[in-house]
Design a protein that fits this description.
The chain is mainly beta. The protein has one domain (about 10-390): 6 Propeller (Neuraminidase). Helices cover about 10% and strands about 40% of the residues. Strand 7 (about 100) and strand 8 form a beta hairpin. It is globular, with a radius of gyration of 20 Å. The two termini are about 25 Å apart. Keywords: Signal. This is Extracellular protein.
């Protein structure tokens, strides 16, 4: 589970990465960039409806009910409930189990990369390269689980294919892929801890969200969240955009912890299912429409999605027209174009199950998962404890 902490100190220390990772003061001046936009949320749909979808037997996963701590290698996973009940997922490959020392990073200096913690972010580009965001945990992680510091590990498409044929290669001989340049790392940095790591196909860049950890509405109203851009080749910072996400129904400013992009470069994020509607808690979706100058016009999408999975969402992703919301070894997906077409029509909410094209899956094991990705008909899910990527063709 992703938890958050608030560090005292400077302006930078008050920030935290989406997904519960504290952003510290180690970022150098060369990595700090000016904001390219400053967007205040203006919602034009103030009366929410609840898109109650027919889950066809998919059971939700309650918070804190998933398993942790096991290091045993897993077998084939079965879908136990949902529209794809009976489908099989298999292990694509296992992530490193031991710390790694490598200079395959922008500084070209040997750095010790910890591999014993679970990935907090998982995304893939259109070429099939995978990116994982790892985070440290405090020494008392058994009590708090607070996360800090981190890095991005890039596993290119060649390495992914190689690993699918030798699933334990990153655990038994990771240097074979690292020294050949097929596995690379960012420099160690607080900011790379983000659980909102996402690929933007419009700009061909990695992006992630930084949000403030503060319950104060007045504080959040003057401290925007930030969207950071990183170069996928060099794994260095490039730019930062600032914007506000304001919920007019509750009067609260949102602190998003998930991120996804469609093919046009529009971004999507979602507030965790803790905001009430007339039909119970719901996921509140935001869309940032990309402008020609690279900035975004943000809006809260009117129709909310009932949280059949859990109140703790772990990640969202988009594969062409499919929108995925994942939470603890389960997911729901639906047609993005149909959702956008009807999002502002309250009367369509009651029949959402018939026109959304819903797909759901509850995967056996009830383990924590970080995100579900789909590319070219193949689905991938990052699972924790043991850290692995599973797949379904």
């Amino acid at each position: 589970m992703k938890k958050v902490s608030l560090l005292a100190g400077s302006f930078a220390a008050a920030l935290l990465m989406a997904g519960g990772i504290a952003l510290g003061t180690t970022t150098s001046n060369s990595q700090s960039v000016a904001a390219v936009s400053n967007i205040r949320q203006k919602t034009d749909y103030t009366k929410r409806s609840n898109a109650y979808v027919n889950t066809k037997g998919a059971k939700g996963v309650a918070n804190l009910r998933y398993k942790q701590g096991s290091t045993a290698y897993s077998k084939t996973y079965k879908v136990t409930a949902g529209t794809t009940k009976g489908a099989k997922w298999t292990t694509a490959f296992y992530l490193p189990l031991k710390n790694l020392t490598s200079n395959a990073n922008p500084s070209h200096k040997n750095t010790s990369y910890f591999a014993t913690n679970a990935p907090q972010g998982f995304t893939m580009d259109k070429s099939g390269n995978m990116y994982f965001a790892f985070s440290r945990k405090n020494s008392n992680r058994g009590k708090t689980g607070y996360l800090y510091n981190g890095y991005i590990m890039k596993v290119d498409a060649y390495a992914v294919k190689k690993l699918e044929g030798n699933k334990k290669l990153l655990t038994t001989n990771p240097n074979s892929l690292i020294k050949s340049g097929h596995v690379k790392f960012s420099n160690m940095n607080w900011a790379f801890c983000s659980g909102s790591l996402a690929w933007d196909p419009k700009t061909n860049r990695l992006k992630f969200i930084i949000a403030y950890n503060s319950p104060s509405r007045s504080y959040l109203s003057t401290h925007p969240v930030q969207m950071v851009t990183a170069n996928p080749s060099s794994l260095k910072f490039e730019s930062t955009a600032k914007f506000y996400l304001h919920d007019t129904v509750t009067g609260q400013y949102s602190q998003p912890n998930v991120l996804a992009f469609d093919n046009s470069g529009n971004y999507y994020t979602a507030a965790a299912a803790s905001l009430n509607t007339s039909n119970g808690n719901a996921y509140i979706l935001h869309q940032g429409v990309r402008k020609s100058n690279g900035t975004y016009s943000d809006r809260e999408l009117g129709m909310t999605i009932k949280p059949i999975l859990s109140t703790q969402e772990q990640g969202i992703s988009i594969d062409n027209d499919r929108f995925y919301i994942g939470s603890n070894s389960a997911y729901i997906s639906f047609s993005l174009s149909k959702y956008l077409k009807n999002a502002y029509t309250p009367s369509m909410a009651k029949s959402a199950g018939s026109w959304l094209g819903v797909e759901t899956a509850q995967i056996a094991g009830s383990r924590e998962s970080e995100n579900v990705l789909s590319r070219n008909g193949v689905k991938y899910m990052a699972m924790t404890w043991p850290n692995e990527v599973i797949m379904h063709k």
